[in-house]
Amino acid sequence: MKKLNELIDTVYDVEINGIKINSKEIEEGDLFVCTDMGTLDRHEFIDDAINKGAHAVIVKKDVGEKSIPVIKVDNPNDILPKICSKFYNNPEEKLTMIGVTGTDGKTSVTSMIQTLIGNDLCGYIGTNGYSCSKFNKDTNNTTPDSDKLYGYLEEFVKAGCKYCSMEVCSEALMRGRVKDIKYDVSILTNITSEHLNIHGTLENYIKDKCKLFTQTKSDGYCILNRDDEHFDEALKASNGKVLTYGEGSNNDLYFKDIKLFPGRNLFTIVYKNKEYKVDSPMAGLFNVYNLSAAILTLFALGYDWDHINKRIPKLHVSGRLENIDMGQDFYVMVDYAHTPNGISKLLEYVKLLPIKRSIVVIGQAGERDPYKRKYVGEIVARGASHAIFTYEDPRSEDPKSIIDMMIENIKDLDNYEIIIDRSKAIKRAIDIAKKGDMVLILGKGNETYEKLKDKTIYFNDIEEAKKHLKDRIDRVTNK
User: Fold this and answer.
1) Do the strands 264-271 and 274-280 form a parallel or antiparallel pair, or are they unpaired?
2) What is the span of the domain harbouring residue 386?
3) Number of Cβ within a 10 Å radius of residue 12
4) Predicted confidence (pLDDT) per residue in 43-98, tens digit
5) 297 φ/ψ angles, rounded to the nearest 5 degrees
6) The domain spanning residue 17 has which CATH number?
7) Tell me, what CATH number does 384's domain have?
8) Is the Cα torsion angle 376, 380, 382, 388 positive or negative in sign?
């Protein structure tokens, strides 16, 4: 609890119990901040916030007299992180802040860093929620809005954490959710064309991604993937000491002698002229890059190889190449891959495995980049033995229209089918799988929801896969 005049320059000293930007979440004593969300004007919900018990409101527009204090500022988006930091006692200054950005790999790298440090000391914020050894909770956004983010950071401080490893998405950087955080370590995984419906152009997307590196402390570290085609842009934006990773020996950390297996990677890393053998449970070449970024981060933070190596066998990222094994004679894996680059890299890895056929279940989210749908559809249909196109969070869009865009470039092929209902699509993939095949269920990982036109329902790909596997096994057993 804080007084309003402790958070912002004002004569009002009303007590503030919390800070919210969504009027639906307002509780008695909260401060309501009318941030600009582009298409959504929060000023329209001031009366709703007052009726729910808000004690004060921060605005940009003239809204007339209200029954609670109204503070007008030039830009509520700029004010929000500042007042949230004060309200939650500046938690970001009490933690070593590690930020990871990139089109693909953010969840994997942030989760790996948490595991390698230890979740008793390191909190995680990202696609899979926010967690440490004391709790594991859900979030609505990969990088939460400031009103929630600083609260999560304070929870980490109270839980005894010394580090925070967090995903920093491009939209959060564009909208200024983390603009006041100075990162001790910032990491680039890769940049490929994505989210152009939000950023407008690839150039804008790259520029927003690179904001993370300008926000790195001058005595901090910018850890960059030299093999990424946009490495130079990140390098130019970097404020901290630059450390690079990749395949070439001109990197601070490089890898070699890679051997890929189902569910396992063997490779060697070289750091400061010393070689270290890595036996990782995180499969795929992309995870060689991801783990190299995480290991280089630990080295930069002062950890030694013995500490790191002891924790590598514990690595597991929920919803990333999640193996579903119920004794069947074929593989079933669930993965979050949903971008053209992520899906392409995953299918390249699958082709290296000793499997017979690859059966891929895939959709594309509604109200998101429509331009990439035909590329995803083509990558899957031309890279897999059989594709099943289905819905994936269609939101207000017609699922069939989304799928029609996905098959635009592959109408000459006959190795795909359309099953709009995602549960039925997963069932079909499992039912047609034969010994030695691999079923890949892509796009949602371990998410626990499906966003439809008029509602959000509970849905989890891993649970669905297990359910349909059990049904198939029961049918065979009871014959």
Assistant:
1) antiparallel
2) 322-477
3) 15
4) 999 999 999 999 999 999 999 999 999 999 999 999 999 999 999 999 999 999 99
5) -60, -45
6) 3.40.1390.10
7) 3.90.190.20
8) negative
